[in-house]
Design a protein that fits this description.
The protein is α/β, with parallel strands linked by helices and 291 residues long. It is built from eleven helices and nine strands. 48% of the residues lie in helices and 18% in strands. A seven-stranded mixed beta sheet has the order 1-9-8-2-5-3-4, sandwiched between helices. It has a two-stranded antiparallel ribbon with strand order 6-7. Helix 1 crosses helix 8 and helix 3 packs across helix 4. Keywords: Acyltransferase, Cell inner membrane, Cell membrane, Membrane, Transferase.
């Protein structure tokens, strides 16, 4: 009951804020930037360490420029995510242009599912709404539940507004098997930090040994569903693109951890080209390989 009550209060508060027009939300974001970056200095040391380790070849001035752009974008991401609580379908469609849809349609035409891979890049949250409106087949979003149940409940309710099916990681196989006889897409946000016991596979990623999830690869090999990357890019404030790119047509033919290597290399290339839109405040490298 306590969790439900907290969820209801939080949901109502987010709804009221979400009713503000975009210009007002971005004015709020401008104030939030000053608070996060200059006053609270939110995770500034984490961001600087991540950028220093990821881009040792860049000068301090170049890394500071990326840092400032990231902190300018982070408040936008926050208010845009709140706006998802009440944004209309037509507004979502207007704000995210789509490329490469023919790739998905080609796979769906065979009657199979698709393993989608995405990253914490640009506004991946708004991308959930766009995907739900774009695809007439089931959209399964694989996610790692938050420790705060009230917040987790509220944000999942927002994400489900246009039909997305939110699937906790531990239920992934069961849900995908349940949809295996029809076209669908299951989306893994694959650049998260695995919990203890969830993975022991490290790869070189952004100049560091990085522990990565292999769940998308396991599902792809088990089902032989093609692997498609869903790349959300930021075009300008409040506007994005979503590009679908098939990375692996026949997963069963890829040896070892090849699929995981491929989609992480694709993610790294995106980040290196426009690093300011990635979630640098995330403690991505907490776990290190055993000596």
């Amino acid at each position: 009951m306590a969790v439900m009550r907290k969820s209801s209060v939080l949901s109502f508060c987010l709804y009221l804020i979400s009713l503000l027009p975009f210009w007002a939300l971005y004015a709020l974001a401008d104030v939030l930037y000053v608070v996060l970056y200059h006053v609270a200095k939110y995770r500034k040391q984490v961001v600087r360490e991540n950028l220093r380790n990821a881009f040792p070849e860049k000068t301090d001035a170049e890394r500071r420029a990326i840092e400032r752009k990231f902190y300018r974008f982070l408040p936008d991401l926050i208010v845009e995510s709140i706006k998802m609580r009440s944004i209309s379908a037509s507004e979502v469609e207007k704000r995210i242009v789509v490329y490469g849809m023919e790739d998905l349609e080609r796979h769906f035409a065979t009657g199979r599912g698709v393993v989608g891979v995405a990253a914490h890049y640009a506004n991946w949250e708004l991308g959930i709404h766009r995907l739900s409106l774009l695809i007439k087949h089931p959209v399964l979003i694989i996610y790692k539940p938050l420790k705060n149940q009230a917040v987790d409940s509220v944000y999942n309710a927002v994400r489900r507004r246009f039909g997305a099916v939110m699937v906790p990681m531990k239920q992934t196989l069961r849900k995908i098997v349940a949809h295996s006889q029809q076209p669908h897409i299951s989306v893994f946000v694959a650049d998260q930090t695995p919990r203890h016991g969830d993975s022991d596979y490290f790869i070189p990623f952004l100049n560091q040994d990085t522990l990565v999830y292999t769940g998308a690869e396991k599902i792809a090999k088990m089902t032989n569903f093609p692997v498609v990357f869903c790349h959300i890019d930021r075009l300008k404030r409040g506007y994005y693109s979503c590009t679908f790119t098939t990375l692996v047509e026949n997963p069963s033919a890829v040896p070892g951890h090849g699929i995981t290597d491929i989609h992480n290399a694709f993610t790294e290339d995106i980040i290196r080209r426009k690093p300011e839109w990635w979630l640098w405040s995330h403690r991505r490298w907490k776990r290190k390989p055993k000596a």
